[in-house]
Amino acid sequence: EIAQKKASEAGQKNKEGYRDYVGTELVERPLADALVAEAGEPHRADGEQSVWRLVNPIDDVGELQALVEDLYATERKDRRYTFKYSPSGPLSVIARLDARTGTFFVNEDHQLVREFAGKPDSKRLLEALIVAEALLEVYLRAAAIQPEIVSDLLERRDSLLRGLALDETYSLASLARALRDATASAIELEIALVGALRALGFGARHIAGAGEPDGLAQYLIHGTGEQSFTLEAKSSKDVPALSQLDFAGLHSHFKSSGAQGCLLVAPSYPAADDPEGEVSKRAVQQRISCWTIEQLAQLVERAERRHVNARSLQDIVLTVYAPIDVTAAVKKLMSDPTFDKVDLYVAIIAALSDLENRLRSTPRNISMIAAEISRDKKFEGVDMPHIRDAVTDLARTSSGMLHVSDKDEVSVIGALDELRRRISHITGETAPPRRRGTFRSNADEMGDHV
Questions:
Q1: For a pLDDT cut of 90, what percent of the chain falls above it?
Q2: What angle do the packed helices 247-256 and 278-286 form, to 10 degrees?
């Protein structure tokens, strides 16, 4: 305790970037104690030792001894932690810590991760929670709590976190996943459909009564009026039969609701590629816009990147009906323009960075940025108006860090890193922290994907 206090006092004299805000007595020492305690536990009746939930066990005695010695001898500057993301299944734990490499392997399929990993700010909080979860197991094990009790407590806590993540959903990735996961469940697909339409800009509500549509979506353009369409979900493990689709009934639903059309979502449609097929003919006759679950899920996932709004979706629903025609219309919406707005935002910041130490006495302008961006084949379809609009978007959201003049001159009033931080909510990019500690690896500030 005295040694820890002296180490803490010494650490307070370190300059920024070398101060240990997360001491080894909070991570490495208890981890070493817990690993040693676990290795000394008697084998259970089934011949297996107790299993860690969030920490990868080490079976080799020599390897364990070397790791424990290293954990006791390590200093924070010599041991940084990284976060790697990969799918492990929706029922798997939120993450696992590999103590040997100092890596947290985060499960992209976990409900909490799906909800909060998409934005830099919430992702940092998510990763802090993941560290705390893994270390909670370590602390409980180091305190000699029975492994069965530890496992039960952590499992109940995990169930709580999953439920809280599902209770209110904001993430586009989560809403898209909910659509895909609800293919075979009627009520889940209806709820997912309503959430998806809200993500695309509509006021949507779930109805689902006898003789009623599953839902209603609408939005108001002031000065023009309000239009709406009904929502219908047809869940099925297989392609739904023509009789299940009941186009006449769906038409009756939207007419009686005072709506102007109907958006029907199903896993797929019989003879979907045949414009002369019965499904296509009835869809056109009854004005039912036939979408697949996957088409809508992809649109939701990319709604912000493609700047999809309620009008662009409604234009398809109220004028395009046959499955093959809906497919063509959605493809056009997803590919025109040929670039994502978010990719263009990132390219603009990269261009400003590349220009930072060149032509230092020359003001930056849209033409200079455009010349840099045009080198990338991904932006072959981009022209000056697109870049001007994108730079203006960034200026509006930069909280005063980026300015565009009437003469197209572009000025960054401060460091590029601070500009990156202020616009990260629309670029999704990781930016260096405003104050640096020693727990995370500098090469992996915000995590990576494997």
A1: 66
A2: 10
